[in-house]
Amino acid sequence: MSIMLFIERVYMGIVIVLVKVFGRKLEKRYKWEPIKDDLEMGNSAYPMVLVQIPMYNEREVYQLSIGAACGLSWPSDRIIIQVLDDSTDPTIKDLVELECQRWASKGINIKYEIRDNRNGYKAGALKEGMKHNYVKQCDYIAIFDADFQPEPDFLWRTIPFLVHNPEIGLVQARWRFVNADECLMTRMQEMSLDYHFTVEQEVGSSTYAFFGFNGTAGVWRIAAINEAGGWKDRTTVEDMDLAVRASLKGWKFVYVGDLHVKNELPSTFKAYRYQQHRWSCGPANLFRKMAMEIIRNKRVTLWKKLYVIYSFFFVRKIIAHIVTFVFYCVVIPMIVLVPEVEIPKWGAVYIPSIITMLNAVGTPRSLHLLVFWILFENVMSLHRTKATFIGLLEAGRVNEWVVTEKLGDALKTKPGIKVSKKPRLSRIGERLHLLELGVGAFLFFCACYNVAFGKNHYFIYLYLQAIAFFIMGFGYVGTFVPNS
């Protein structure tokens, strides 16, 4: 399986080099030109755009996202801002509604929408939002999560792709992280996500005009959403679900890598674990539900079906997590205990090294953190592997949805809230993660055994990896928010 992952990484590396060196620019692959004024039609020459902002108890960031959406440059009578507030905290709901009223008083066409339940979570909110009568006049929907802040020219740069190319159903922008330097954990996340955007999304867009919708910072053609069957809440990755179904209907996707939208990375380990569970469990569960549907589809080519099933789902969403954990945290330690079994040097050193280097190309500024990133990713592979099997087997937490906590500028502007890079001793109990501690103890034992009886030097890696598991097991990673 490591060979499969290696081939996939090399393939994407070759494709991205060819795209960067020989590939045509997006504006040449697809028709793109500014939407021109029409003296006779006036503003009606511009398509009607709906901007959706789903949120849930977003006390720290609601003003940022609403303000950024209301600041989008577009004819004022051709845009509707729709705030979908699923908050359960009455105080926060009042604050969000007041913020919407404040912008409405400035002449912004903004709608504050609530519902009496949270059925379907984000997918349910987006689906409910599209049922309002005023949405029927809209052609496109731009979606931004509550911590996303698009630049004013976002619509001017994305909408023309949809207007001039009727086969395009989605235009996706890249994320830019405003808090990447907050702590070491956010730097590690930046490295992983930069590879996703720099390589995976770019390769998918350039080769098969398909990639997974990132759930935010994108613009959909409403006709594509409707033809694909609308939003569904059968998994925790409603964005990927919609993208796959729309692609099977023949719609093409465009990734605009030089269009960045600011957002926030989870900076607490608790929030990051919940997010990674959802991001790992959801795709595996979606693969289980859609594999046969993809195979039976007759509207897309065999090669595209092979790409979606093998490359997009099987290798990246399933094999990648399992191989990382099994190889680094099971196979290598067990070989120490069973010295009769050996790993060839190409399997133990060369292939993992190449895969790691290819993953690091997205964030050159963090190359000096490569060792820390490897150790961090190996620890997280434990949770991703567990979540992957939960998704494949549809076990207990398969539909667990915990909204990723956002801190915004609260920690900088509110003197009453303090953040410590390390948890207080009095609260260490609530920060313990027994699974990490258990694996760390196993690796530490294997390292000691290797020192005492082994003939190789695996103990160097095993000690480092054990320490990483212990650090994260005791909660000494990310920021720590008291009473969070």
Strand order of the largest sheet: 3-2-1-4-6-5-7
Give the mean pLDDT.
90
Number of domains: 2
Computed Rg: 23 Å
Q: What is the strand content?
A: 5-15%
Give the low-confidence spans. 413-422
The helical percent reads: 40-55%
Mind summarizing the main beta sheet? 7 strands, mixed
What is the CATH domain class of the largest domain? Alpha Beta
The assigned structural class equals alpha/beta
Number of helices: 17
Q: Indicate the CATH architecture of the largest domain.
A: Alpha-Beta Complex
CATH superfamily membership of the largest domain, which one? Spore Coat Polysaccharide Biosynthesis Protein SpsA, Chain A
Q: Report, as a whole number of angstroms, the end-to-end distance.
A: 39 Å
Oligomeric state, counting identical vs distinct chains: single chain
Order of helices and strands: HHEHEHEHEHEHEHHEHHHHHHHH
Would you report the number of β strands?
7
Return the CATH topology of the largest domain: Spore Coat Polysaccharide Biosynthesis Protein SpsA, Chain A
Architecture overview:
This protein is of the alpha/beta class and 484 residues long. It has 2 domains: 26-266, Spore Coat Polysaccharide Biosynthesis Protein SpsA, Chain A; 268-400 and 427-478, no CATH class. Helices cover 54% and strands 10% of the residues. It contains 17 helices and 7 strands. The protein has helices spanning 2-22, 26-29, 62-70, 90-104, 121-129, 154-164, 184-207, 222-228, 238-248, 269-296, 302-337, 345-360, 370-393, 410-413, 428-431, 434-453, 458-473; strands spanning 49-55, 79-85, 110-113, 140-143, 168-177, 218-221, 252-263. A 7-stranded mixed sheet has the order 3-2-1-4-6-5-7, with helices on both faces. Helix 3 (62-70) links the parallel strand 1 (49-55) and strand 2. Helix 1 crosses helix 7 and helix 8 packs across helix 9 (238-248). It is globular. It starts with a helix and ends in an 11-residue tail after the last helix. Residues 413-422 have low confidence and may be disordered. Keywords: Cell wall biogenesis/degradation, Glycosyltransferase, Golgi apparatus, Membrane, Transferase, Transmembrane, Transmembrane helix. It is a multi-pass membrane protein. InterPro entries: Glyco_trans_2-like, Nucleotide-diphossugar_trans. One of its GO terms (cellular component) is Golgi membrane. This is glucomannan 4-beta-mannosyltransferase.
